[in-house]
Amino acid sequence: MGKPYRMIVQTGILESAADYLSELGRNRTTGLVCDDHTAALYADGLTKRLTAAGWHVRRCVIPAGEAHKTLQTTADLWAQFVEGGLDRSSLVAALGGGVVGDVSGFAAAAFLRGIDWVNLPTTLLAMVDASIGGKTGVDLPQGKNLVGAFHPPRMVLADPAALSTLPIGELRSGLAEVVKHGVIGDPALLEACAEGLDGLAGRWEWLVRRAAAVKVRVIEADPFEQGLREVLNFGHTIGHALEKASRYQIRHGEAVAIGMVVETRLAEKLGIARQGLSGQIKAILTRLGLPVEVPLGLDTEEIRAGLAVDKKRRAGQLRFSLPSGTGQAGDLQSVQAGVVIPIEEVLQEVCG
Ligand SMILES: NC(=O)c1ccc[n+]([C@@H]2O[C@H](COP(=O)([O-])OP(=O)(O)OC[C@H]3O[C@@H](n4cnc5c(N)ncnc54)[C@H](O)[C@@H]3O)[C@@H](O)[C@H]2O)c1
Ligand SMILES: O=C(O)C(=O)C[C@@H](O)[C@H](O)[C@H](O)COP(=O)(O)O
Ligand SMILES: [Zn+2]
Questions:
Q1: I need a surface site. Which of 96, 271, 310, 318 has the fewest CB within 10 A?
Q2: 324 and 195 together in one domain
Q3: Ligand 2: residue whose CA is nearest its atom 13
Q4: Where does the 3-dehydroquinate synthase C-terminal domain start and stop, copy by copy (predicted)?
């Protein structure tokens, strides 16, 4: 296990990020990694405050979007780190969503054989999921997240105030992972999500804390995915294949939403899930405005190719993390990992 690190969820915390980061050492250089959008929205304020606190800030901007979660973007970042004079005492600070976090963390993991980084998540998805647990990495043309490293951040500061500028489609995408965490281990999250977006107004800090807490429980028990952590992949075996087959036109959370419904139908057919569970999950996702059906027009062979490279496979067999019911508070037993299903059966369910 890496060094323990703090995650703080607090509205307005980005305003005092410099104070928190200074706990990790002073007068250091930070490579502040943002994408086009977070650079325009949040980088100036943060740079000013970090500079006032004695940090030397080198801003490194990457293009926004999953299509840029690549080795090329990582190589561009490494070049910016060198030009910016980053050394082994420097700190990479990822200011953005899951894409910025995954690429920055991976760049930090390999730069000079590994330097510290912190995560300042600005999307709901990154606050409740991507910023936690140290999975970093990039996509290859062959599939999602195929290259990466476990490299936990030194600190995570999540500021729900940043959600005020987040486009609604991105907010919905993050809610899919909240629903996933609800199924894994917190019925209160599912009840809140069943109220729809209007019912969540004014409750974002509560929601982020509660959803993040489920992931924290899982990764504390199994940081390097030796077993239990695979439950966090519920919806992802199919979700990742759909993302790739859509050339990343489907957002990660949207693909996971569809993946959770289809994978729960498979669980019902296998007798793992009680009948009606897929309908219950589908109703909550629909209420949140998330897609629940595989879009027409995706190429079956592309989906097959995406499934075939899933990282949970063993000896050529696809393994799924499937729910039996919805989680009980304090219990992480509702999703069963390692369920083997033949690819033709899966494609039949996905493509009809
Ligand atoms: N490492 C992990 O454990 C983990 C977990 C879940 C997901 N992921 C990965 O995370 C990625 C998805 O993350 P995401 O949904 O945050 O996507 P993203 O990083 O692409 O962000 C979505 C969009 O929102 C913009 N944005 C970010 N913050 C904003 C703000 N506050 N206001 C306005 N716009 C803002 C971004 O520029 C981008 O256009 C996927 O690559 C997925 O594989 C990783
Ligand atoms: O942290 C995990 O473990 C997860 O599975 C969380 C997922 O939501 C996330 O999308 C993750 O990036 C998937 O990891 P992968 O190992 O399937 O690439
Ligand atoms: Zn995910």
A1: 271
A2: yes
A3: 233
A4: 174-312
d(CA 266, CA 272): 9
pLDDT band at 326 (very low <50, low <70, confident <90, very high): confident
Best of 11, 164, 170 for a ligand 1 pocket test (most atoms within 8 Å of beta carbon): 170
Q: Which of 66, 225, 243, 254 is catalytic?
A: 225
Residues 200 and 255 in one domain: yes
Spell out the residues 6+ positions from residue 88 whose beta carbon is closer than 8 angstroms to its own.
Answer: 112, 115
Q: 245: domain range?
A: 168-351
Is 130 domain-assigned? yes
| Contact assessment for residue 260 and residue 285, using Cβ atoms and an 8 Å cutoff | yes
> What value does the mean pLDDT take over residues 111-118?
98
Boundary of a domain, candidates 163, 180, 212: 163
Q: Length of the chain in residues, anyone?
A: 352
Q: Is 344 a catalytic residue?
A: no
Identify the H or E element spanning 300.
Answer: helix 300-308
Q: Rounded to the nearest whole angstrom, what is the distance from the C-alpha of residue 84 to the centroid of ligand 2? A: 31
Q: Do 151 and 208 share a domain, yes or no?
A: no
CATH of residue 122's domain is: 3.40.50.1970
Predicted confidence (pLDDT) per residue in 62-88, tens digit: 999 999 999 999 999 999 999 999 999
Q: Which atom of ligand 1 is nearest to the CA of 99?
A: 19
The reply to whether 201 and 318 lie within a common domain is: yes
Which residue among 7, 11, 14, 37 is best mutated to probe the pocket of ligand 1, counting the most ligand atoms within 8 A of its Cβ? Answer: 37
Instruction: Please check if 259 is assigned to a binding site.
Output: no
| Residues 127 and 203 occupy one common structural domain | no
pLDDT for the residue 1: 59
Question: How far apart (Å, rounded) are the C-alpha atoms in residues 260 and 221?
Answer: 23
* Residue of 214, 205, 241, 230 whose CA lies nearest to 346: 241
Tell me how far apart the alpha carbons of residues 39 and 327 are, in angstroms, rounded to a whole number: 38
pLDDT-derived band of residue 27, with 50, 70 and 90 as boundaries?
Answer: confident
Give yes or no for residue 181 CB within 6 A of ligand 2: no
